[in-house]
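Support reply, case 0932

Customer input (verbatim):
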Amino acid sequence: MIYGITGNKNKKNIPAVLSLLVENFEKINVPYLIDDELKIHLDKKYANAKTYKREKVLVKSDLLISLGGDGTFLNTARLVGSSGIPILGVNLGTLGFIAEVSPNEVIKFIGDIEKGKYKVVDLCVLSLKTEGGKELNGINEITIDKGNSIRIIEIEVKYKNELVANFLADGLIVATPTGSTGYSLSAGGPIVSPYSKVFIINPICPHSLNLRPIIVPDDGTLTIKASGSNKIRVSADGHSTMMLDSPVEFVLNRAEYNIKVVKRINKTYFQTLNNKLLWGEDKRKK
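Our regenerated output:
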């Protein structure tokens, strides 16, 4: 197996983790490729280690190690796209909900991977298309909102051509199960197991007392119309963004590909939920 190493070069502990990985791969004589972007962080004793353009790392790797936080993982996933390369997220950030392997666990886990003791989990991707043919893909969520305006917008949501709701709000989040613990959670949405085949429709600050998030199966098409006095903004995972003239219509579906994530066999979603978000913790217990 060939390991590719990429990540966020601005993380302060990148040099230590990168040196740890290179030393380990040299020791166990396993082939690896380092992203050119990380070259400046190589330890002097590994200064002669070969680095490659990111495109080559993506093409030649059997497994990609993403060094950073959840944002770095999402960026890596965008680069991987539909290629199907499994990604191992090493958390150098704060929360580390998707990139859940810590630096002090990664070497042992790579040993487990070499022994075949790991699992690969598929995460669904949300695909949005505009009437003009523009497209965005999101792993966590796609957000439609009022952009830079202070005025609310009108939103109509249909699922399988059936009207779900028509309302005024700051915007709308359509989240995947993976994204249920991200922006959607902050906006009052539910936590959903990442293995559920659903989408979360979550209005942002609706001008209504009786409009709440709703969950629908991900095998249907969502049609969303948005209109306001200014441009409508649509973004994927808080990264890729488009500003579109109002009114505008979007079609959302589950993408034809998944993102593959490398995980430890003995690590469960609910353990991560408990450890990272303190889900179910009883503060009365000491």
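We compared this against your earlier run and they match. Two observations from our side: The domain at 3-118+264-277 is CATH 3.40.50.10330 (Rossmann fold). The two ends are 46 Å apart (CA to CA). Please reopen the case if you see a mismatch on your end.
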